[in-house]
């Protein structure tokens, strides 16, 4: 019988930080709020229910040249969970 070890979840830090999502290669910019962060991802509240793709970038400041690339791993209404990824 195989025994699988469950990887423990990275500690999350609660925050309410305004941010911006960059979609479509950076051509579309939408407001959002970071609800919590961990070393591997974040929980993000969207400003609206508009559809978005599986990949986006988060800018934590108004300087959209400094972004964190993400992959959407779940969505429930206007809240999404993202995983931080390297450049694709």
TrEMBL record:
Transmembrane segments: none
Alphabetized SUPFAM superfamilies for the sequence: PilZ domain-like
Coiled coil: none
GO molecular function, one term: cyclic-di-GMP binding
Gene3D superfamilies: predicted glycosyltransferase like domains
Residue ranges of domain PilZ in the record: 15-85
Pfam families, sorted: PilZ
Designated name of the protein: PilZ domain-containing protein
Natural source organism: Afipia massiliensis
Upper taxonomic lineage: Bacteria, Pseudomonadati, Pseudomonadota, Alphaproteobacteria, Hyphomicrobiales
């Amino acid at each position: 019988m195989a025994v699988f070890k469950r990887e423990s979840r990275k500690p999350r830090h609660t925050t309410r930080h305004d941010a911006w999502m960059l979609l479509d290669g950076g051509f579309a910019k939408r407001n959002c709020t970071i609800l919590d962060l961990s070393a591997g991802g974040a929980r993000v509240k969207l400003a609206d229910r508009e559809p978005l793709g599986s990949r986006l970038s988060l800018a934590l400041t108004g300087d959209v040249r400094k972004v964190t690339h993400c992959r959407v791993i779940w969505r429930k209404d206007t809240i999404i969970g993202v995983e931080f990824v390297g450049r694709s």
